[in-house]
Amino acid sequence: MSHIDLTLTPTHVRFMNRRFPCTIGRGGLTADKVEGDGATPRGSHQIVEMLYRADRMAQPVPWARPIGSADLWSDDVNDRAYNSQVRAPHAFSHEHLRRSDPMYDLILITDWNYPDAVPGKGSAIFIHQWRGPGRPTAGCVAFRRDHLRWIAQRITPHSRLVIA
């Protein structure tokens, strides 16, 4: 592990010699991720993209891409585009990336089951803003807004989210 990796411990995430409180999936940690289980998958997951709401914040780093009003993420195991970004209108089940709440104002996308997704092995394992301390996610890792922005300004596409 490197200081540029986000390393999950039982009580926080370590990154660049700092500690950040975080939340994980309501299903805890798992080595056998299944779509809809609410669990956060164990492993070493590379950060592959960063998305942000340009109407709510400045571009955090040059490689971050803005989230548009038609941007979605497919979570339907029957969709050929399962576990990837798609655009509206989209006939299959999906998540809206441009949410009314601030949870997805800044998203770090991991390579969990991406880009060559196995249907049913889980989708949309992101790093994003939490709903509040102790409030679990659907399988993602989430941080306080100011901590997430601090991390985003320093992370690289070569960094990993390491979950032992």
What does this protein look like?
- With 164 residues, this protein is mainly beta.
- Helix content is 5%, strand content 32%.
- It is built from one helix and 15 strands; from the N terminus they run E-E-E-E-E-E-E-E-E-E-E-E-E-E-H-E.
- The strands form three sheets. Strands 1, 2, 3, 4, 7, 8, 12, 13, 14 and 15 form a ten-stranded mixed beta sheet that branches. A three-stranded antiparallel beta sheet has the order 10-9-11, with no helix packed on it. It has a two-stranded parallel sheet with strand order 5-6.
- A hairpin with a 4-residue loop joins strand 1 (6-8) and strand 2 (13-15).
- The chain is globular and about 45 Å long.
- The relative contact order is 0.28.
- The model has no long low-confidence stretch (mean pLDDT 97).
Which short descriptors sum up this protein?
164 residues, mainly beta, 10-stranded mixed beta sheet, 1 helix, globular
The oligomeric state of the chains shown is single chain
Could you give the count of β-strands? 15
Low-confidence stretches: none
How much β-strand is present in the residues?
Answer: 25-35%
Strand-pairing-aware structural class = mainly beta
**Number of contiguous helices:** 1
| Cα-atom radius of gyration | 15 Å
